[in-house]
């Protein structure tokens, strides 16, 4: 009986120990589940705060690639954005490309964003082709016209004057329109729509580069010679020379575009702080003009951007609001 009593006590102790161990393990697993659940909830709340416009300070993906075209406005805006994003903690690589490569690289995710997309007219064909793989953050500069431009001293006022050879404008320019980079939105619009609509069959759109076009324009003006160029505003040449847009009675170039910001899909999740800064980036023609003039005067674009950012902290603080 004594032996049975001892055995019963020992058996009871084993059962109690097992129950205690099981309770401890369940408690630990339960705490782990709750911890994971709480963490997940916290992340979801953080995401909601971001979408509601609250503070977003997470850098996330640190390296960013920004492609841009060689338009003077694009050079200025993308270099300024490079400075602002680097001050926010990112490593930014700028890549000068043509319009097609700019769209393809952002749409396929090999680049992250750009701030030089002209819509709704100039880049319409590119936008239609790639928009499903892009996120449009809206305009960063409003009211940006483009068209065919001549020096003020030329006695022609409309694109129709080119067809009619008014005041021998065709003869005096070899029936040539001096353009920019082949594949640029304005070049496609001019060649595929403007010239056919106005019957400019005798005219040639000569592709070159934005810099070459500006140099040719300056040389012609210095010698007071006739020239027709593809041009847009904002551009430093309008501060330097007396120029005028040729009237577009058929409105093929359309109402003034806006310059827009686009980013790749998923950037908001990968680099929340960068997305918010890019989304809040807005400035005026006067502001971008200050940067373009400095660059045209010979200042390195990166230096001009740094100087502008340093002198315009009120504007920059609006772009970075909620990212501290």
From TrEMBL:
<dbReference type="InterPro" id="IPR007210">
    <property type="entry name" value="ABC_Gly_betaine_transp_sub-bd"/>
</dbReference>
<feature type="signal peptide">
    <location>
        <begin position="1"/>
        <end position="17"/>
    </location>
</feature>
<keyword id="KW-1003">Cell membrane</keyword>
<dbReference type="GO" id="GO:0031460">
    <property type="term" value="P:glycine betaine transport"/>
</dbReference>
<dbReference type="GO" id="GO:0015226">
    <property type="term" value="F:carnitine transmembrane transporter activity"/>
</dbReference>
<dbReference type="GO" id="GO:0015871">
    <property type="term" value="P:choline transport"/>
</dbReference>
<dbReference type="Pfam" id="PF04069">
    <property type="entry name" value="OpuAC"/>
</dbReference>
<keyword id="KW-0732">Signal</keyword>
<feature type="region of interest" description="Disordered">
    <location>
        <begin position="24"/>
        <end position="55"/>
    </location>
</feature>
<keyword id="KW-0472">Membrane</keyword>
<protein>
    <submittedName>
        <fullName>Glycine/betaine ABC transporter substrate-binding protein</fullName>
    </submittedName>
</protein>
<feature type="compositionally biased region" description="Low complexity">
    <location>
        <begin position="24"/>
        <end position="53"/>
    </location>
</feature>
<keyword id="KW-0813">Transport</keyword>
<feature type="domain" description="ABC-type glycine betaine transport system substrate-binding">
    <location>
        <begin position="62"/>
        <end position="310"/>
    </location>
</feature>
<dbReference type="GO" id="GO:0043190">
    <property type="term" value="C:ATP-binding cassette (ABC) transporter complex"/>
</dbReference>
<dbReference type="GO" id="GO:0005275">
    <property type="term" value="F:amine transmembrane transporter activity"/>
</dbReference>
């Amino acid at each position: 009986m004594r032996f049975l009593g001892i055995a019963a006590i020992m058996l009871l102790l084993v059962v109690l120990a097992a129950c205690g161990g099981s309770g401890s393990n369940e408690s630990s697993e339960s705490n782990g589940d709750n911890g994971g659940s709480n963490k997940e909830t916290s992340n979801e709340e953080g995401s909601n705060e971001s979408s509601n416009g609250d503070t977003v300070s997470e850098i996330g993906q640190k390296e960013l690639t920004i492609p841009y075209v060689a338009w003077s406005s694009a050079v200025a805006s993308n270099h300024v954005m490079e400075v602002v994003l680097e001050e926010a903690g990112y490593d930014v690589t700028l890549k000068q490309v043509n319009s097609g490569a700019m769209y393809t690289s952002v749409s396929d995710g090999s680049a992250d964003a750009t701030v030089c997309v002209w819509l709704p007219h100039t880049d319409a064909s590119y936008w239609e082709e790639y928009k499903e793989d892009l996120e449009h953050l809206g305009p960063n500069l409003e009211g940006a016209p483009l068209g065919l431009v001549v020096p003020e001293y030329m006695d022609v006022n409309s694109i129709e004057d080119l067809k009619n050879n008014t005041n021998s404008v065709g003869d005096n320019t070899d029936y040539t329109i001096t353009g920019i980079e082949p594949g640029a939105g304005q070049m496609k619009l001019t060649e595929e729509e403007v010239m056919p609509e106005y019957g400019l069959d005798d005219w040639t759109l000569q592709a070159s580069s934005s810099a070459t076009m500006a140099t040719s324009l300056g040389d012609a003006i210095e010698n007071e010679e006739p020239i027709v160029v593809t041009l847009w505003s904002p551009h430093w040449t309008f501060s330097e020379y007396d120029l005028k847009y040729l009237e577009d009675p058929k409105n093929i170039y359309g109402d003034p575009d806006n310059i827009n910001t686009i980013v790749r899909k998923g950037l908001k999740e990968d680099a929340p702080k960068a997305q918010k800064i890019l989304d809040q980036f807005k400035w005026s023609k006067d502001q971008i003009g200050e940067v373009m003039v400095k660059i045209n005067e010979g200042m390195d674009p990166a230096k001009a951007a740094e100087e502008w950012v340093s002198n315009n902290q009120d504007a920059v603080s609006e772009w970075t609001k909620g990212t501290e």
